[in-house]
DNA sequence: TGCTCGTTCGCACGACTTGCGAACACTCAC
DNA sequence: GTGAGTGTTCGCAAGTCGTGCGAACGAGCA
């Protein structure tokens, strides 16, 4: 995602208005590596702008996504995450606390996949499931946060 | 997933009853490579057993999943898919028609991933997004089915 | 056959997201 | 600076997908 200043220009160039709500979200998202949910952004935004609506957060996120400034990522269960990093990269997900981190993967071109039967893949998505460092250090059974589903294979 | 006959024994061995509804779902799922949704299974099951409840379909799928006979898979958007193939494998998803196919990927162990920062991955999930053979043959814009979201990176 | 306990099923509810439209406010022309 | 005009905000209703609940039911066993 571009900087708040650049987005301000980009929005106006498209005939879109630059409102205080949008500016706030530009700031909250720029450089954000948390992969926040809409609710999480709404909570943070509300602290700074008490009247802001969750509806507006969803709306602005959709606008940014349609402009290619934002990536929407969904992992198995739970709400959609929003990712201002639109470069090609992948993710590690902690199935205990739900934390998501960016990961860069090298060697994807060397993967051998079959059978494709005429299927034409355009995007290879890799998600590593497991435990983050903090969660790996604690009991395997303890959990205070609803876990994210993990494939059983 | 094991055969309907084996599942019948496995259910009774656990003190679970083998009802006509369950037997029907055992049959509909065994060897099924469609990655069907609960609704899709409900529709198929209803043709054969008109009174069956969607609630029972969900319930039985959850039972099978908790026994490790079934894998639940979610792709970006849309409802959960159920996969009787619990071997380690991966998926290709047509973002136009939503079709899902199994794919086996070789070379995963050679992938280089960084930075992991203490994260301990246990499962590597690979999803190839693109167009199935049938959809690749038609107009890129034509669509009669709501597409599955595709990551923008 | 009859008892018992797990199952089924309809309905209400929950989580997450989107549709809708009236009130509002950013822009720009003047 | 002011006003007109168009895009935006926001609350509420509705939509989608899935789960909690409990009364009626029926599979399995003595
Ligand atoms: Mn990311
Ligand atoms: Mn599969
Ligand atoms: Zn964690
Ligand atoms: Zn297709």
What does this structure look like?
Chain A has 153 residues and is an alpha+beta fold. Chain A has two domains: 4-73, Winged helix-like DNA-binding domain superfamily/Winged helix DNA-binding domain (Arc Repressor Mutant, subunit A); 87-138, Dna Ligase, domain 1, CATH 3.30.1490. Chain A has five helices and six strands, in the order H-H-H-H-E-E-E-E-E-E-H. In chain A, the strands form two sheets. A three-stranded mixed β-sheet of chain A has the order 4-3-6. A two-stranded antiparallel sheet of chain A has the order 1-2. In chain A, helix 2 packs across helix 3. The two termini of chain A are 35 Å apart. At the A-B interface, strand 1, strand 3, strand 4, strand 5 and strand 6 of A face strand 1, strand 3, strand 4, strand 5 and strand 6 of B. Strand 5 (112-114) of chain A pairs antiparallel with strand 4 of chain B, so a sheet runs across the interface. The complex binds manganese (II) ion (2 copies) and zinc ion (ZN) (2 copies). The site of one zinc ion has 8 residues of chain B, from helix 5. One zinc ion (ZN) binds next to helix 5 of chain A. Chain A binds a DNA duplex (30 and 30 nucleotides) through residues 12, 15-19, 21-22, 37-39, 51-56, 58-59, 62, 78-80.
């Amino acid at each position: 995602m571009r900087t708040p200043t650049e987005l301000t220009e980009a929005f106006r160039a498209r005939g879109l208005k630059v409102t205080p709500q949008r500016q706030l979200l530009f700031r909250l998202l720029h450089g954000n590596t948390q992969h926040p949910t809409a609710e999480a952004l709404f909570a943070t935004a509300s602290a700074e702008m008490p009247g802001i609506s969750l509806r507006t957060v969803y709306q602005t996120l959709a606008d940014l996504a349609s402009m290619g400034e934002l990536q929407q990522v969904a992992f198995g269960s739970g709400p959609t995450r929003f990712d201002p990093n639109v470069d090609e990269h992948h993710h590690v997900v902690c199935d205990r606390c739900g934390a998501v981190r960016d990961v860069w993967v090298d060697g994807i071109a060397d993967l051998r996949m079959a059978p494709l039967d005429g299927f034409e893949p355009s995007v290879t998505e890799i998600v590593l499931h497991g435990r983050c460092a903090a969660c790996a250090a604690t009991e395997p059974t303890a959990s205070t946060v609803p876990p994210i589903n993990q494939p059983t294979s």
